[in-house]
Design goal:
By secondary structure, the chain is mostly helical. It is built from nine helices and no strands. The longest helix is centred in the last third of the chain and has 28 residues.
Length: 191
């Protein structure tokens, strides 16, 4: 007779995601994962695989949640310009509370260089984010709230790079009050 799981795999995966997010891939040990997930070592391996497999599941969960949240922010905004500001403000707000930066950005700098699977997932996620920003720029130009002389694709890449830089600074512990004025300057780029 098969044993039933004594834990919720979704909850355990969220806990693993938070461990990798807080500690980074290299510093997260299997014992850290067992302790934080509340799962026995054997159950962890049976359900999620090895550390790398669990990391990839955690990273995919994170980027899915991040992409959903970014789409929701964009859809709830008054106009495209407001959506762009809200995306930057959301990163600042989340970062100042959690002080973990962005798991995808952290993984890009820590893991992706030596791990092609991580690099592919990060590249896919970054492309989705860039497309969202470029789409908002085109929408804003149609709405008349963003200057039409900008190339939406190139400026979208620039905005995305600014967002990544902001997330790296958050991870480095730069206080929100020092980073917030940068959002105003970034928004001026849309004029």
């Amino acid at each position: 007779m098969a044993r039933t799981k004594e834990f919720d795999p979704e909850v355990a995966l969220d806990r693993a995601m938070n461990a990798f997010w807080e500690l980074g891939y290299e510093k997260t040990s299997m014992q850290d994962l067992v302790d934080r997930m509340g799962v026995g070592r054997r159950s962890l391996y049976d359900t999620f695989g090895d550390k790398h497999a669990l990391f990839m599941q955690s990273l995919r969960r994170y980027v899915d949640l991040r992409e959903d949240a970014e789409r929701e922010i964009a859809e709830a905004a008054h106009d495209a310009r407001d959506a762009i500001r809200q995306l930057f403000e959301a990163s600042l707000a989340e970062g100042s509370v959690l002080q973990k930066g962005c798991l995808a950005t952290n993984s890009a700098t820590e893991v992706a260089l030596g791990d092609p699977e991580t690099a592919r997932e990060i590249e896919r996620h970054f492309a989705v984010c860039q497309q969202l920003l470029s789409g908002l720029l085109r929408q804003g130009q149609r709405e008349g709230v963003i200057a039409e002389h900008h190339g939406a694709q190139a400026l979208g890449t620039g905005l995305f790079n600014a967002l990544l830089g902001l997330r790296v600074q958050i991870r480095a512990g730069i206080p929100r009050m020092r980073l917030a004025p940068a959002v105003d300057e970034i928004m001026r780029m849309l004029d």
